[in-house]
Amino acid sequence: MYVILVYDIGEKRVGKMLKLCRGYLNWIQNSVFEGEITEVKLKELVTKAKKIMNEESDSLIIFKSRNERWLDKQVVGKERMEVSNFL
């Protein structure tokens, strides 16, 4: 499946969340990631994220699609990390 993941995490935990998400998805902008991931890997990511988060004040939002081709993506301005650079 193809996902877009967005988080809003307290300043003290941002570094840990960034490192975690980079291990599973492609970083495209501050607190925003995208990429192909299996259901099992996504569940693993969410489980690990919950250990970092304070669920009372932090948030993690995941948009899912069966495939990237069903997503109409438009970038205005400079794209921080082009996904096409990955093998």
Helix-strand layout with pairing:
Elements: E1 2-8, H1 14-22, E2 26-29, E3 32-36, H2 39-52, E4 59-65
Antiparallel strand pairs: 1-3, 1-4, 2-3
Helix pairs in contact: 1-2
Tell me about this structure.
- By secondary structure, the chain is of the alpha+beta class.
- It has a domain at 1-7 and 21-51 and 59-67: 2-Layer Sandwich (Alpha-Beta Plaits).
- The protein is built from two helices and four strands.
- The protein has helices at residues 14-22, 39-52, and strands spanning 2-8, 26-29, 32-36, 59-65.
- Strands 2-3-1-4 form a four-stranded antiparallel beta sheet, with helices on one face.
- Strand 2 (26-29) and strand 3 form a beta hairpin.
- Helix 1 runs antiparallel to helix 2 (39-52).
- The longest helix is centred in the middle third of the chain and has 14 residues, at 39-52.
- The model has no long low-confidence stretch (mean pLDDT 86).
List keywords for this structure.
single chain; 87 residues; alpha+beta; globular
Largest sheet: 4 strands, antiparallel
How far apart are the termini? 17 Å
What is the CATH topology assignment of the domain at 1-7 and 21-51 and 59-67?
A: Alpha-Beta Plaits
CATH architecture of the domain at 1-7 and 21-51 and 59-67: 2-Layer Sandwich
CATH class of the domain at 1-7 and 21-51 and 59-67: Alpha Beta
Uncertain residue segments: none
Strand order of the largest sheet: 2-3-1-4
**Strand fraction:** 25-35%
The topology string of helices and strands comes to EHEEHE
pLDDT averaged over residues: 86
- Helical proportion? 25-40%
SS summary, helix count:
2
Instruction: State the total count of DSSP E strands.
Output: 4
Rough shape? globular
Radius of gyration: 13 Å
**Helix-and-strand structural type:** alpha+beta
